Structure formats: C-alpha cells, structure tokens
C-alpha cells in the first residue's frame, strides 16, 4: 500500500496517468478500501491507495517525501520511454532517468498525492 492524502485524486492519477486499473472500491468508514492493479496482471498484485488519515501515517508519508525517499518502486522495461510518456502527461520528476553505476536505471516522480515513486529498469 501507499499512503495518499486524497483517495479520489490518487485513483485518478494511478488509473488515468500511470495506467493502472481500479480493482476494488468499497466503503470503509470515512474512507474506502481502494486498490489498483496492473492491466497486465489481472490476478496479480494489488496496490492499496491507503488514506493517511492517522497522524502516524501522515508523519511517515511526509518524512519519506521530505527526505526524497520513494514510497514504492515500479519496474519498467524502458525507463526513458516511460518518463517521456509521463512527462507528456504533466508528471513532475524529482530525479530524471539516471543510470546507476553497476546497477539499474532509475527515475523518481511525484504522484501528486504525497509520495515520491521510483521507476526502475534492470
């Protein structure tokens, strides 16, 4: 799961911009049990868009962001192509595609919901 400051905004970003599909959307008190999944893995892993309504969650999320630590990472077969696509949709990158010596190529973007997300190409 990733903590988000606005579940509806997160759903729109993760589906409309990143290309995930809404998997589960059920009321859960003042919030929703809201998950998205890759269209390539219908029965695969679901990502919970978890509200940061508790103070501990909000503090954790803000601390990660302030220290430039990604909340999660997604793999891509072509980081450069994916970054170009996302930039065309208005996504703001805090780290452009960068080849790490003896490691992967990474890029980091802001998901507009309080998180930094890393894209990794190995």
Which geometry do the CA atoms define?
A: globular
Intertermini distance: 23 Å
Question: Given the structure, what is the number of helices?
Answer: 3
Give the averaged pLDDT, no decimals: 95
Which quaternary structure do these chains form?
single chain
Number of strands: 8
Strands across the major sheet, in which order?
1-4-3-2
Q: Supply Rg.
A: 14 Å
- Write down the secondary-structure element order: EHEEEHEHEEE
- The proportion of residues forming helix, as a percent range, comes to 25-40%
Secondary-structure-based class equals: alpha/beta
Q: Uncertain regions: pLDDT < 50 for 5+ in a row?
A: none
What's the main sheet like?
A: 4 strands, mixed
Portion of residues in beta strands equals 35-45%
